[in-house]
């Protein structure tokens, strides 16, 4: 279960990460970007979280338009950091 502190940290850290990527001249460690993205998404708010926030704070958030099917299982899906190659 994601706590409010974890959710807030995910939003702040994601903003910082995107800023770092936007200012980088070159990303040289391919796996680093993927592993950081996975860790940030672990507690990133889903549409249901944004919907609750929009109800409580309509001046800060708006209701999301539609939940994508993959978001329903995003917290239970396991994404490997280093996918196995199947062509060997």
Summarize the structure in short.
InterPro entries: BPSL0761-like. With 88 residues, the chain is mainly alpha-helical.
Q: Would you list the SSEs in sequence order as H and E? A: HHHH
The value of Rg in angstroms is 16 Å
Provide the structure class.
mainly alpha
Number of domains: 2
Measured by DSSP, the beta-strand proportion falls in: under 5%
Count of individual helical segments: 4
Distance between the termini: 37 Å
Total beta strands: 0
What is the mean predicted local confidence, pLDDT?
77
| Uncertain ranges | 73-85
- Proportion in helices: 40-55%
InterPro entries: BPSL0761-like (IPR049723)
General description of the model:
This protein has about 90 residues and is mainly alpha-helical. The chain folds into two domains: about 1-45, no CATH class; about 45-75, no CATH class. It has helices at about 5-25, 30-40, 45-55, 70. The N and C termini lie far apart (about 35 Å). The model is unreliable at about 75-85 (pLDDT under 50). InterPro entries: BPSL0761-like (IPR049723).
